[in-house]
Structure formats: structure tokens, C-alpha cells
Amino acid sequence: MSKKTANDTASDLSDATPGQRGPADHERREQILSVADDLFKAHGFRKTSVTDIAREIGVSSAYLYRFFNSKQAIGEAVCARALSSMDNAIRAVAERDQPATQRLRDMLQTLLEEALRLFLRERRMHDIIVVSIENQWSVTEEHNRVVYETIEKIVADGRDSGEFERKTPLDEVCTAIRVTAAAYAHPVLLSRLGDPEEMETKLTAVTNLILRSLAP
Amino acid sequence: MSKKTANDTASDLSDATPGQRGPADHERREQILSVADDLFKAHGFRKTSVTDIAREIGVSSAYLYRFFNSKQAIGEAVCARALSSMDNAIRAVAERDQPATQRLRDMLQTLLEEALRLFLRERRMHDIIVVSIENQWSVTEEHNRVVYETIEKIVADGRDSGEFERKTPLDEVCTAIRVTAAAYAHPVLLSRLGDPEEMETKLTAVTNLILRSLAP
Questions:
Q1: Which chain A residues contact residue B208 at CB under 8 A?
Q2: A109 in contact with B at a CB cutoff of 8 Å?
Q3: What is the full per-residue pLDDT of chain B (216 aa) written as tens digits?
Q4: What backbone torsions phi and psi does residue B125 show, to the nearest 5 degrees?
Q5: Closest listed residue to residue A49, CA positions, set A38, A41, A39
Q6: Domains and CATH numbers, chain B
Q7: Do residues A67 and A29 touch, judged by C-beta distance below 8 A?
């Protein structure tokens, strides 16, 4: 977050009365999540307290609780934010003016790269993932919808262009690719696929399998 | 474990001197794992202590430590035992005298059924899975090998019989199916696939995708 934005937010907040939510509140939320994300990555989710986050920003913990009810709420919002950055990246691939085959390959590769960037640190899983699994956080619904719709757009385009077969029901094909795509983006699975080179070999094999299944 | 075996084991052990390991020790190990498995399932891995396991068998904790160095060692052995029962089930399917297509379907279905039986309790993950992920237990190596070899046998048979295509390198095809098969057997992924009916629909779609990819 830029200096300017942080200053604006601070001056806006000095005037704010509880209950009033404006653009400044939105910016402050983003700042909290950005600082929390950095601290979670550096020290782990479990070892970071709300007090640590407040201290880093230069506000009180009580002030942070006006935005988030608990550390878990901050953790869930950090995860949702990371997933939405992944969503934007794959949406951009789906919109490209390229053959569907190429877009499907690139979309799966993007899922992999984003997952590695977001959730694995030095090939160890970010501990927020373990906590989210254990407590069954449900921040992935919107993300699942976007992944499904992205696959659906590319497969439908590939059917129109004659690149892909049309006999199997579209929703069955998209569901199967969606479930299979978990291999590229789920940190628990990724962390088991071996070193980066092995991971690449295995996932290229899966991509080729998916594309063979789509052959007309 | 039968009454008879438990008695035999106890009497054998009264004669045993440290360092001597015979069939009785093997049986005692199995008894410990069986009791531990039941307690982990009933109360959770985290809430079960070595003392609880010893008390249930009617021996001292010190005695248990002659067989396993730590609760974690018991946990890892319980997981390995569960995976080996899964391995036996899929091996049996691969050996059947049936078309490869049918065996591949049945093998994947068996993976699913065994995973549900072993790792999910009332659709919640057994907490031993969370602990094993967090601590990166490596009990799955033998299991991964068996799953790969089972897939390889079925795919090779299907190539011989003309059911499956032969252009793609065999190891590439088997690697891709192996990675995809994680969707059927990984408790973290399974717990996200929805209710049993949804799970069935989604995994049938994946099985059909794999079979389409194998079409000659």
C-alpha cells in the first residue's frame, strides 16, 4: 500500500464515526489484509497475533477488531484475496484470442504457478492452509465457481471451433476437468508431487490426458 | 484380535527378554495398532495418549514404548496399515479376469470406497490426516508404488487387448492416471466434493474422462 493511501486513510478515519463505512474503510481493510498476509508468510499464521498485525500498522488491536471479528476472520479474508488473484489470472487466459487447446494448457499452467506463488513457501505449505483444512474454512466457493466457468468457456469455445468432441454432455466434461484441476492448485497435493521438475512432468502428463479425452 | 492370540501373546511375552523379537512381538504390534486405530477413530488422534492405548490393552506405557518410540510412530504405523489394506483391495481388482476398462473403473471406485471407509468419519476427516499433512509424514511411498503398478498392469493389459490406445508412452499415461486418481483417495480433496451423491457424480465424470483419454 502506498504512503499516500495510508495517509489518506488515517486522516479519513480521524473523522469517522462508528458505523460509517466509506472508501477509506475499504482501503484500511486492504491494508490490514496486506500486512497480515506478509506476516503470515514470514512467521506463519499460528505464530502471528492480532496484536502483531496492529503493531505493524501502527494502530491498536481494538481498532482492528472494528474491521475483523477475529484472527480467523482475517485469515479467511487473506485466503479469499489470494484466491481472487488466482481467479483474475485464469479469467485473463480464458479471454485470450487463441485456440481453446492452447488456452486450456495455459489455464492449467497458470493455476499451478499461482498456487505455488500463493501457498507454498520454499516447498513447504503455508500453515494457513493446514489451519483452513482443519477448521473447514469455506472461502473457496467463489473460487470454485470461477474455475468452473473458466473451464466451461474454454471447452465451449473448443466445441464451437471443432477442436473438441461434442458427444459427452458439456457439464460432465467440465465437472471432470474441474475435479482433475485440483491437482494443479491444491497445496496439499502439490507438496507431494516432488521437486519442481517432477511436478512439471507429472502435470504435463495430466494436461495431455485431459486434451486426449477432448479429442473429436 | 482374538482372545486366543491375546493370551498367547501375553504368555510369550512373560518369557521374552528385551531384544528378542518373534512372532509374538509381531502379534503384539498388530494388537497395539488395532487398539490405537479404534481409539484414534473414536476420540481423535490428538486426544488419544500413549497411556490411553496402554490402559485399553492392559499394559504399561513403558511396555508400549518397547514397540513404538512415540505416539507419532504409532500414528504413522496406523496410517501405513490402513493404506496397505487399500493396496490389497486394488491389487485384487487388477488381477481379475475382466476387460481392462471394467477393471480400471472398479479400481478407481475401490480407491474411493476404501478412502471413505478409512479416513472420513461422518464426512469429517479423521484428525490423523491433518496431523500427517502438517508434519509431512512419509508413510505413503509404498502405497504410491502399489497404486502406480496397479494402474500400469491394467493399462498394459488394455493395450494388449486393443481396448486402449498405444501411441502415448505407457509411463506418461500411467503417471497422469496416478495423479488424477488422488481425487478418489485423498481425504482432503474428498471432503470437498460434496454429499455422497455429488461425490459419485463427480468421480464418475472423472472416470469417464480417463477412459475417453484411453480410447484407441
A1: 168, 172, 176
A2: no
A3: 344 444 444 444 444 444 555 568 888 999 999 999 889 888 888 899 999 999 999 999 999 999 999 999 999 998 888 888 999 999 999 999 999 999 999 999 999 998 888 877 655 667 787 777 777 777 878 888 999 999 999 999 999 999 999 999 999 999 999 999 988 888 777 877 888 888 899 999 999 999 999 999
A4: -70, 140
A5: A39
A6: 3-68 (1.10.10.60), 76-213 (1.10.357.10)
A7: yes
